[in-house]
Amino acid sequence: MSRLGLGLSLYVGVLTIFLLAPVAVVIASAFTGAEFVTFPPHGVSLKWFAKVLGDPQFVVPLWNSLRLGVLATLLSAVLAIPAAIAMVRYRLPGADLIQAFLLSPLSLPTIILAVGLLFFVARIGIGSSLLALVVGHAVITVPYVLRTVLGVYAGINREIEEAAMVLGANPLRAFWLVTLPLIRPGILAGAIFSFLLSFDEVPVALLLSNTDTTTLPVSILSYLVYNYDPAVAAISTIQIAIVIAVLLVLERVFGVKHLLFTSR
Amino acid sequence: MAAPTSVAISSAPAEATCRPLLWLCPLILFLVIFFAGPLLLNLMESLRLDKGAPTFAEYTHIFGDPYYLRVIAQTLIFGIVVTAICIVLGYPLAIAVARLDGTGKALLIFAVVVPLLINVVVRSFGWMVILSRAGAFNWLMRALGLPTVDVMYTWTGVTIALVHVLLPFMVLAIASTLETLDPRLEEAARVLGASRARVFRHVTLPLSFEGLITGSILCFTLTIGSFVTVMLLGKTSTMIMPLLIYQQLTVSSNWPFAAAMGMTLLVIVTAVLWLQLQLRRPRWRR
After folding, report:
1. B41 and A120: CB-CB below 8 Å?
2. Which end of chain B is flanked by fewer CB atoms within 10 Å, N or C?
3. Could you report the per-residue pLDDT of B116-129, keeping only the tens digit for each?
């Protein structure tokens, strides 16, 4: 902290408290022994965790969210990886315009996409099915996978691929043995981002899910509208734990510092 | 981030046109159908095309009603205020991120990024626990013998919670450009006799202009498109456009109106993004 000077160090301390306070109070409230959310919490107990983990009202949406995140990420990866490779490998006419279009879902408020998708699924008759949710989330997550893979692939030394082909590997073998291992960090980081985005997304899930497919954030939101008790804190704490675990994996494979350069 | 796309190896001409299209097509088709398609449907719904000739009735309804005009104005002002607060709070934090290295840097980035990844519903709930009448903040105020405050269901409360949601975006955007800034430039200015304030005004600030713009546009567009935080911490007087769209859709089942409001929001966001493209070429960097 010596590089910052006293004033800036103090400021960083205060802002860090501001950034972490809402998360800290949620975790603290989850371990309360009381019947209400009070501050400071009274007593220490795990009863609220036991309550939510035995309550299908929370457990079913938790599984739905995990499943939805994985499916949307798989779909995004299948669509984005070949597209990213093509964009780096070949000089296409209008490449900038194509890339701008492919990344444009990033800039759009998801509420507008959610409303449009609601009209769309109503018209083509797939209703609020799991398929509609997977497609809706993939629209949101695919630009992130595209961008991370583009960034990593554009940065690697392409001569290695050529060398493999000169030495007799067919394009498929060169891709599998050379290209894929080289871009794996980009794919993993993009996939983890994609999963986290889907796991956190509210507007599309709120408008397109039904009681069977509802996601964790949507169920917490609906519960909060009518209730205000430590059960919400407990299920939120479980969600925070999942996200932090995923973030630690991300740090392992990619380095959190790189988030600086992948966030728009 | 604009990834360089000009790297290309020599390939046979036929391959060069066929294969990239084959690899790009699934994604392009997917987004045309499931991204452009829904937006087009939204436009059609707002013009009530399924009931015959297009009508602008929904739009004249929005722009002729003082209440809806107020909601639009509130949304824009809210976006500007949240963005301004994020700039003021975020800039020094971004300087700290750029200056630190090693463990200190990793920890600070972690502290900035963790809230970004925690669900906005959970964070709003956290702010309810802090800001409610019997919440953590008032408990602290009472412990210190200070008067308590009541900011739940006010603009103040909503603004605090949304600044918390968007501050990480601003910090990361500014820090990204500050990282690339050569520290010797600031040192040179200092050595040549410029005061700290002058160095900031004439060296640091202009060189971080792009990050500042990127962060501000991102903050603004995300604020005017947000609704979970406002839904949980606000009330009817803190109505903003996304919440109105949701309400019209679910409570009133007025789809054409919700669609027209959505198109209005889309036009505002597009205009702001266009403005960003114009500002991308700052005069002083030439």
Report:
1. yes
2. C
3. 878 899 999 999 99
Structural domains of chain A, ranges and CATH numbers in brackets: 55-262 (1.10.3720.10)
B11 and A90 within 8 Å at the Cβ level: the answer is: yes
Query: A36-62 as b/e, with b when 16 or more CB fall inside 10 Å?
Result: ebbbebeeeeeebbeebeeeeebbbbb
Q: Do B262 and A112 touch (CB under 8 A)?
A: yes
Could you give the CA distance from residue A156 to residue A116 in angstroms, rounded to a whole number?
A: 39
Structure confidence by residue, pLDDT tens digits, B169-222: 999 999 988 988 888 888 888 888 888 888 888 888 888 888 899 999 999 999
Domain assignment present for B224: yes
Q: Which of B106, B121, B125 sits opposite A256 (nearest CB)?
A: B106
* Strand partners of residue A32: A44
Smallest CA–CA distance, residue A193 to chain B, in Å, is 9
- Structural domain tally of chain B? 1
Domain encompassing residue B173:
79-255+268-285
Residue with tokens 């371990």: A31
**CATH number, residue B183:** 1.10.3720.10
Contact B110 A256 (CB under 8 A): yes
Q: Answer yes or no: is the ipTM higher than 0.85.
A: yes
Q: Is the dihedral of CA B131, B132, B133, B138 positive or negative?
A: negative
* Nearest neighbour of B120 by CB, restricted to A79, A104, A202: A202
| pTM greater than the 0.90 cutoff | no
